[in-house]
Amino acid sequence: MSFHAIEQATARLNRSELAVPGSQPQMFEKAAASDVDVIFLDLEDAVAPDEKEQARKNIIQALNEIDWGRKAMSVRINGLDTHYMYRDVVDVVEQAGERLDLIMIPKVGTASDVYAVDMLVTQIEDAKGYEKRIGFEHIIETALGMQNVHEIAAASKRNESLHFGVADYAASTRARTTNIGGVNRDYSVLTDPSDDGDREVHWGDMWHYAVARMVVAARANGLRPIDGPFGDFKDADGYRAAAMRAAVLGCEGKWAIHPSQIALANDVMSPSEAEVAKAKRILEAMADAEAQGKGAVSLDGRLIDYASIRQAQVLVEKSKQISG
Ligand code: GLV
Ligand code: MG
């Protein structure tokens, strides 16, 4: 290990994160009754300019009056380049800061963006005498944000998670796709002809580099990496596959832009019973090995060593967190 210790952000279950437009208060009760881990009430891209003010009022009222249970509550503020953002922070934190756990900052570009919001939130919390500190979730969804992802991840003690905002990221990088998440037929490999002349098209994952890069920045700073939206909410298999790819790379949650995606995210992002059972067997086998003075042994015909202990511990810890 490096001498540099990584401080872990506040531990929070974040397998699923539901986006709920602040301008649609009729959706709030259903969201509160769902099985989602985190809800973000949106003031940004799901809300039209004329509705921003009313959406802010709806969110303040809902945070104060609805029973959200043990869910972590977040508000996605408008971008720092808009004139809505300061009022989003001031009004929501002043008037509903007690129930607010997180602020989601969209299109974050630099560490100084984080600093600016941190300063504002700190002043409000101090003035109001709040004891709890509100955490930050950052959406990495621009070329600038991705370029500076490491500095952003390290920019504030409030930071808890990084989210891959695939739709805006595609727009910012001018990627040739209009899907929200998912795969693209044009991002594929055409194999060389086989002996009988057949060629196959192997679809690739055009988001692999971006998600992997964000995961590294998040984990190197003790934050949760979370995969963003998958637009085609009728395609449960496509959603599941996207969530699985993200989970395999290290993400611990995925957005739900429709309530039907919550159960899929919770399922994919929870380790299965078989995985947890195997992790426990690895820990037992390594404990036995250590007692015999060995640092590596074989289990089911495969080598395991001290790195296996750390991998297994991650899974066992996660399952404990889920069972509460
Ligand atoms: C989310 O905000 C996205 O742009 O995908
Ligand atoms: Mg976006």
Describe the fold and architecture:
The chain is of the alpha/beta class. The protein is 43% helix and 16% strand. A hairpin with a 2-residue loop joins strand 11 and strand 12. Helix 3 (85-96) runs parallel beside helix 4 (111-128), helix 9 packs parallel to helix 10 (260-269) and helix 11 (273-291) crosses helix 12 (306-323). The longest helix is centred in the last third of the chain and has 19 residues, at 273-291. The protein starts with 15 loop residues before the first strand and ends with a helix. Glyoxylic acid is lined by residues 106, 139, 141, 165-168, 228-229. Glyoxylic acid (GLV) binds at residues 106, 139, 141, 165-168, 228-229.
